[in-house]
Write a structure and sequence with these properties.
By secondary structure, the protein is an alpha+beta fold. It has a single domain, classed as Up-down Bundle (Outer membrane efflux proteins (OEP)), CATH 1.20.1600.10. The chain contains ten helices and eight strands. The protein has a four-stranded antiparallel beta sheet with strand order 2-5-7-8. It has a two-stranded parallel sheet with strand order 1-6. A two-stranded antiparallel ribbon has the order 3-4. Helix 9 packs antiparallel against helix 10 (389-424).
C-alpha cells in the first residue's frame, strides 16, 4: 500500500511539473508583444502615470470645497457657574458641527499645472521604457539566433576535423601517417568541443534574459520560429542612414524639455508666495443637553466667515526661493541646449557606426567563405598526403577565427541598427 501511495505521489508530482511548464513558439513580434504585456518594469512605469495623476488630483481637490462633520461630548461633573449670585448649571452636552470651507491661491493653480507636466513626463517615460524593452527583446532575439548560428558553424567545423581525425587514425594503422598527426587533430577536436559547450552555456544565459524580459517562468521552453535570414534586413538598416533626425521624436529630448518646463513653472509657484490666499467657510452647530434642562449656551447655530491672508515680510526667504528657482531653470535650459547638441553628435556617430558595421559585415562574410574553401582544399590535400596535419589545424583555427569575426560583425550590425532606430524613434523591423 505504501508503495502505491509513493508511486501515485511521484506521478502526481511529475504531472504537476509538466503542466506547470509552458512552451512558447515565438516570432520576434510575438516576443515583443509578450514583453509589453508582462514585463514588470513596464508595469511599474504604467503605475507611475497613475501615481502622477493621483498627485495632480490632490492639488485639484485642494481648490474645491472641503467639508467635515465633528461630534463631541462634554460633562462638567455637576459644576455650576456663579453669575452675580445666580447659579448657572453646566449640564452634560454634545455638539454636532458641520463645516464647509474653501481656500484659493495662485500657488494652487500653478500646482495643477506642475501636476499635468509630471503626468506628461510619466507618460513619456512609459513610452521610453516600452521602447527600451522592445529593443532589448529584439537584441536578445537576434543574439540567440546568432549564437545558434555560431554553434552550427562550430559544429560543421567539428565534423570536418573529426572526419580528418578518423582518416588520420586509419592512416596511422596502415603506417602512412604519424600518431602525432592524429594527436594534434584530437587536441583540436577537444578544444572545439569545449568552445561549443561554452557557447551553448552562453546561449542558455541569453534564453534566461529573454524569459526575464518577457515575464515568463525560468523553466518555460522557448522556440524561436524566425531565422537570421528572415529578420536581417540590410537594405532596411541602411535606409536609416537617409532618415531625417527629428529631435522632438526622441524620448530623452522630450523628457529634458519637460524638465525645463517644470523648472519654469517652479518659478511661478514660488513667485505666488507673494500673493494672497482667500478663504471662506460656513459652519452649522447643533448643541444638545443630556438628562437635564438646557444650560448656559453661547454657541451660535450658524456661522459664516471669510478671510484674506496677505504676506508682508519674510526676511528675504521668499525672494531667495524665487531666485533659487530661476537659477534651477537656467540649469535646465543649459541642459536642454547640451542635449540638443549631444543628440545631434550621437546621430552622426550612430550613422558612422552602422556604416562601419555593415562594411565589416560584408568583409567578414567574404572572409568566412574564403576560409571555408581553404579548409576544404587543405583537407583534400591532406587526404592525398600533400599537406601536413599542422596545416590542417592552422587552417581550421583560421576558419574558427573567421567564424567568430563574422558573428561579431553580424552582431555589430544589429546593435548599430537598434541604437539608431532608438535615437530616431523608429522601427524598420
Amino acid at each position: 500500500m505504501k508503495h502505491k501511495i509513493l508511486i501515485f505521489s511521484l506521478v502526481f508530482f511529475m504531472v504537476g511539473q509538466v503542466s506547470g511548464q509552458q512552451s512558447f513558439e515565438l516570432t520576434l513580434k510575438d516576443a515583443q508583444k509578450q514583453a509589453i504585456e508582462h514585463n514588470r518594469t513596464l508595469k511599474n512605469a504604467s503605475l507611475e502615470i497613475q501615481k502622477a495623476e493621483a498627485s495632480r488630483w490632490q492639488t485639484l481637490a485642494s481648490m474645491l470645497p472641503q467639508a467635515h462633520v465633528n461630534l463631541d461630548y462634554s460633562n462638567f461633573m455637576g459644576y455650576e457657574i456663579n453669575f452675580s449670585g445666580m447659579p448657572i448649571p453646566m449640564n452634560p452636552s454634545g455638539n454636532l458641527t458641520a463645516q464647509v470651507a474653501i481656500a484659493l491661491s495662485g500657488a494652487q493653480l500653478v500646482g495643477t499645472q506642475l501636476g499635468a507636466i509630471a503626468t506628461k513626463m510619466a507618460e513619456i517615460n512609459l513610452q521610453k521604457t516600452e521602447q527600451d524593452i522592445v529593443n532589448q527583446v529584439k537584441s536578445l532575439y537576434y543574439s540567440v539566433l546568432i549564437m545558434n548560428e555560431t554553434v552550427t558553424l562550430l559544429g560543421k567545423s567539428l565534423d570536418n576535423i573529426k572526419k580528418l581525425h578518423e582518416f588520420t587514425e586509419n592512416s596511422v594503422k596502415v603506417g602512412v601517417a604519424d600518431q602525432t598527426d592524429a594527436d594534434q587533430l584530437l587536441v583540436q577536436i577537444a578544444t572545439m568541443e569545449t568552445t561549443i559547450n561554452s557557447t551553448k552555456r552562453s546561449l542558455e544565459m541569453l534564453y534566461n534574459s529573454l524569459r526575464l524580459q518577457m515575464g515568463i517562468g525560468v523553466n518555460s521552453e522557448i522556440m524561436l520560429t524566425q531565422t537570421i535570414e528572415d529578420l536581417l534586413n540590410i537594405e532596411g538598416a541602411l535606409q536609416l542612414l537617409k532618415a531625417d533626425f527629428i529631435l522632438d521624436n526622441n524620448f530623452n529630448y522630450q523628457l529634458v524639455k519637460q524638465s525645463a518646463d517644470l523648472s519654469k513653472k517652479q518659478i511661478a509657484l514660488n513667485a505666488w508666495s507673494y500673493g494672497p490666499t482667500i478663504s471662506a467657510f460656513y459652519q452649522y452647530t447643533k448643541k444638545s443637553y443630556f438628562g437635564k434642562d438646557e444650560g448656559f449656551n453661547m454657541t451660535p447655530p450658524n456661522l459664516i466667515g471669510a478671510a484674506i491672508a496677505i504676506p508682508i515680510f519674510s526676511s528675504g526667504a521668499r525672494y531667495s526661493k524665487v531666485r533659487e528657482a530661476k537659477l534651477a531653470h537656467e540649469v535646465q535650459v543649459n541642459t536642454l541646449a547640451d542635449t540638443k547638441e549631444a543628440l545631434a553628435i550621437q546621430h552622426s556617430q550612430l550613422q558612422y557606426n552602422l556604416t562601419s558595421a555593415f562594411e565589416s559585415y560584408e568583409t567578414q562574410k567574404k572572409n568566412i567563405e574564403v576560409n571555408q574553401r581553404i579548409l576544404e582544399n587543405i583537407s583534400k590535400k591532406y587526404e592525398q598526403g600533400m599537406a601536413s596535419s599542422l596545416e590542417v589545424t592552422t587552417t581550421g583555427s583560421n576558419l574558427i577565427n573567421a567564424q567568430n569575426s563574422y558573428v561579431q560583425a553580424l552582431m555589430e550590425v544589429v546593435t548599430a541598427q537598434i541604437a539608431l532606430e532608438k535615437l530616431l524613434n523608429t522601427d524598420n523591423q
